[in-house]
Amino acid sequence: MNEESYCSKIEVRKSCLQQRAALGEQERSNKSFLIRKKLEDLPEFKTAQTVMLFLNFRDEVETTASAEAVVACKKKLILPRCAPKGILLPLKVSNLAVDLEPGAWGIREPKLTNEEVNPLEIDLVVVPGAGFDLQGNRLGYGGGFYDRFFPRLKSLTPRVALGFECQIIDQVPVDKHDVKMTKLVTEKMVYDFGKIANQ
Ligand SMILES: Nc1nc2c(c(=O)[nH]1)N(C=O)[C@@H](CNc1ccc(C(=O)N[C@@H](CCC(=O)O)C(=O)O)cc1)CN2
Ligand SMILES: Nc1ncnc2c1ncn2[C@@H]1O[C@H](COP(=O)(O)OP(=O)(O)OP(=O)(O)O)[C@@H](O)[C@H]1O
Predict the structure, then answer these.
(1) What CATH number does the domain containing 93 carry?
(2) For residues 64-94, b (16+ Cβ closer than 10 Å) or e, as one string?
(3) Is the pLDDT assigned to residue 3 strictly greater than 90?
(4) 147 CA to centre of ligand 1 in angstroms
(5) Taking 80 as the threshold, does the pLDDT of residue 180 lie above it?
């Protein structure tokens, strides 16, 4: 990775996460509800048979209710599990009450006994992030997990990020491995970046 963007990624990440942390518990919960409604109203959510979500940790957008909605409407729910070397395993979850355990960094992750799915089967990936810009760029926590995972999807599988308005900045520092989002959903609106291939 280019050294200049590495240093600025650390700084920018810190500042975006501070903005997010400044939201109160109630505010985060209210905004998460609005984000959830917008996500579940998206045509790509409605038509997807297989949805890869994330379960929130720290002060991310709350996603548990959407995960429950995916299971309740008989879609296949896929959740990520961190594996060594920055690999993200997409595992099938049928029952949120029994299929999860606290994994890396305390994130609620599927147990390894859950079935691993072929990323080519996934119709929609919902993506967390520390910061976003309105060109479709996303900054994560610096593990490179999602950037290594995206090239394994079909190139036009929608990649929808969830974030709060306060996490949007003018320009996220980008490297050549960074994959753009197709949409960003915030409490205020859905930003559409068009059909962008993942490689
Ligand atoms: N809810 C959720 N699940 C997710 C992600 C996410 O962003 N949100 N990930 C998205 O990729 C992956 C986890 N990625 C992570 C990467 C780094 C750190 C982290 O805490 N890093 C340290 C610094 C480096 C270190 O000590 O290893 C830190 O921030 O203190 C946490 C999660 C997979 N699952
Ligand atoms: N496709 C890839 N192939 C190999 N290495 C990669 C790839 N994507 C990212 N990396 C490496 O992973 C590390 C973290 O990358 P980066 O800071 O862009 O992660 P991030 O987007 O913040 O995190 P994440 O994708 O987990 O949310 C860097 O060392 C980077 O070189």
Answers:
(1) 3.40.50.10420
(2) eebbebbbeeebbbbbbbeeeeeebbbbbbe
(3) no
(4) 13
(5) yes
